[in-house]
Predict the 3D structure of the following.
Amino acid sequence: MNPNELQACYVACGIAIAIVVAVAMEPWARILHHYVWHRFLWPIHRSHHTRRKGRFEANDVLSATHAPIAAALIMIGCNLHGFAASVALGIGAGMTLFGFAYVVVHDGLVHGRLPVGFLARHAFLRRVRDAHAVHHARGRAPYGLFLGPQELKQAALARRESPNGP
């Protein structure tokens, strides 16, 4: 394989890794939200479930915890070569992609902290918004954001199939 082909392979691997990581961040975020934020870090996360006073809330710190890790991986990847660079850059880029989508949809569309109301024209994003509203109303599932509508469907099916009720 010549150097140009090898470089193209590294780029393709980095892109594939970024996509896989971006997709994997949703279940990871769901696990953190459910088992860590709603339990051990509730004193901080509680600010997200109460009326906000001002532009920021204590919970913003939790949402930003992955950004330094992603930035570090991107910087490390820029200083590596070959496949190692592809892995570090891919992971950092995937985390960043998910983080950007999360901020735009969660903080912007769902909570109105950014001017992105036009996103509600998309049926999927309306379902995401509505599922997250259910989470805030009940304080329990769905804990995921992008998979929130699916979590609600699965919970409804489980309730219907359970002989003992909810």
Remarks:
- The first helix runs from residue 3 to 40.
- The chain has seven helices and no strands.
